[in-house]
Amino acid sequence: MAQLVQSTGAVKECLRRSYPSWSPEAEVQRSAVKRLISGSMDYVEMSRRALGDHWRRLSDDERSQFVAELGRLIESRSLVQGMYLGSDCQIRFDRESVTTRGTASVFATVLAERRKKTLRLAVEYRLLLKGERWVVYDLVTDGKSLLESYRDQFDKVIARESFGALLQKLRQRADEGGQGLGEESRREPGDNR
Q1: Distance in angstroms (rounded) separating the CA atoms of residues 137 and 39
Q2: Cβ atoms within 10 A of the Cβ of 97, count?
């Protein structure tokens, strides 16, 4: 849990100040946040799990492209949500549960002031032990798994269109600031419609 506390604290510290989006400071801030997030996430594992059976049918090149685009999407979403929650948000790490299979869950509560109301989010970080480090492969917010949401969205796009179309949509969403691929992407953090 200490590793997760340290990395989320570093991201929060990075987002403490607000800069105009066009400024060099904003670009430095975005780069730092993306670096911190990518250092604590396992994009290959997330990609493999999010694509399910589709993963096996992909070439190495397609897998590499997908992992890169999913990473960009997650980093963009994290930046947008971090800015949405604000620098005054508090993350309270409540407890952790470690298995003998090299997985763990860390349970936290995020508190943020939004529109004069306190926004409270229950977050579960699902982690995998890779070598000496714990890396995040899923985030569950208020009972909704990011990984399962992606899997549902990705399955629909691949079934209706193609894997190539999914890659294009991922690129587009990452460029737009990280919005998801489906209806739920229009929700704000903490909105459980």
Answers
A1: 12
A2: 10
The closest of 98, 151, 149, 108 to 128, measured between CA atoms, is 98
Closest to 178 in 3D by CA, of 88, 100, 69, 99: 69
DSSP calls for 90-159: EEEEEEEEE-TTSEEEEEEEEEEEETTEEEEEEEEEEEEEETTEEEEEEEEETTEEHHHHHHHHHHHHHH
Nearest Cα residue to 137 out of 74, 62, 57 = 74
Local structure of residue 61 (DSSP, 8 states): H
pLDDT number for residue 189: 40
Measured distance CA(81)–CA(79) in Å, rounded: 6
Q: Which residue has the tokens 């939004």?
A: 114
Map tokens 């690129």 to a residue: 171
173 CB neighbour count, 10 Å cutoff? 19
Domains present along the chain, CATH in parentheses:
2-182 (3.10.450.710)
Please state the pTM of the whole predicted model: 0.77
pLDDT band at 80 (very low <50, low <70, confident <90, very high): low
**Residue 29 to residue 79: CA distance in whole angstroms:** 10
Average pLDDT over residues 108-128: 86
Average pLDDT over residues 92-118: 89
What is the spatial distance between Cα 76 and Cα 178, in angstroms, rounded to a whole number? 5
